[in-house]
Predict the 3D structure of the following.
Amino acid sequence: MNTRDLEYFAALAQQRNFTLVAKKFQVTQPTITLAIKRLENQTNQQLVIRDQSHHSIALTAAGHIFANHIAVILNELAQTKQDLAAIQPTKIRFGLPPIIGINYFPQFTPALAAANLLTSITTTEGGSADLLEKLKRGDIDIALLGSIDPIDHPGITAKLLARQPFEIIAPGNSHWAAQTPIYFKDVAREPFIMLASGFVHPQAFARLAEASQTSPEIVYHTGDINLIKNMVQQGVGLGFLAQTAMHKNDNLLAITLADADQPHFNIYVAYRANQVLTPEKQRVIEILSGQRTN
């Protein structure tokens, strides 16, 4: 079996149309037909049922099984190519959510610089959910990720580094400063500015709302943490951020909630378990994990 035939079949299993698959790969339709015939001969199985009247196909039971295995094989091949391309010691593709990059990650930069690793790191920024998907696909090598649940995904090794509370963010001169303790239900009638869906904050916010049986209004979504802080300062609404996103010079009020069993912002270092770690990548993981080497 050659990989091009497998790619043709994977596309056909998704699109169920020979013409569309031929257009996708910029080949003739008979090329796709012959590739499927080769695969059927090699597997000794009928993989597709052709509906000539509707110019479409359906997968047989064997075809469904074959398609599932092909998806895994093609994904592994793609990751293998990326791992081989990234094995150069000067390239470490690193995922970093902005909210972790503000105050948490900088504490490791002196050690990374001392180990001559900072110049080897190419950073990709984004929400933790988006970066986890990039990690699974092999688009990045190592990531710091935030999560409210344990990171337990097949093929991903994740080590817990820190656990921090979420906080309600209000203007520095807000009346909330005089009220303690504060529960989520106390602020649920206020408008909120929220981080976008690629971050874990909306999940934590939704759990607090469900637990308190409230439905706060979210007036604006953004992936820009500084914009959230500025909008809060302007009185547009309250913010909801992990403690690590706040700085003492923000001139904002950070309110720790008194709710029991509230979600926490867990910070992990994560990487694909099946990738071959270069000494440089291993050292980055050790530094982020707080491990010391002689």
